[in-house]
Design goal:
66% of the residues lie in helices and 0% in strands. With 92 residues, it is mainly alpha-helical. It has one domain. Helix 1 packs across helix 3 and helix 2 crosses helix 3. It is elongated. The N and C termini lie far apart (39 Å). The relative contact order is 0.22.
């Protein structure tokens, strides 16, 4: 349970940092969506890290790796919005 809580907290911070690092017109707007994308990035980083043996079964991604994961998720989000596969809830 503490591993899951750690991933959520790290993902929250990673999402905010990723949002600050890669500003752009297609960024997800809103606090909740940015947080969710950061948490997804942290989960992605944790799963990949565990798959390659960098993290143990009960370890989560660190801040740097989670931020990189959040940047990857943010990049995918931007590409999907740019191709109009999904709509940006922040656009009017």
């Amino acid at each position: 349970m503490s591993g899951l809580l750690w991933i959520i907290i790290v993902g929250f911070v990673a999402g905010i940092i990723a949002r600050l690092i890669s500003p752009g017109p297609n960024n997800p707007s809103g606090f909740i969506l940015t947080t969710v994308l950061g948490i997804v990035g942290a989960f992605l980083a944790t799963l990949i890290g565990q798959a390659v043996g960098h993290y143990g079964p009960n370890q989560g991604a660190g801040f740097v790796t989670a931020t990189i994961g959040a940047l990857v998720v943010l990049f995918i989000w931007n590409r999907l919005v740019a191709r109009r596969v999904i709509s940006d809830p922040g656009s009017k």
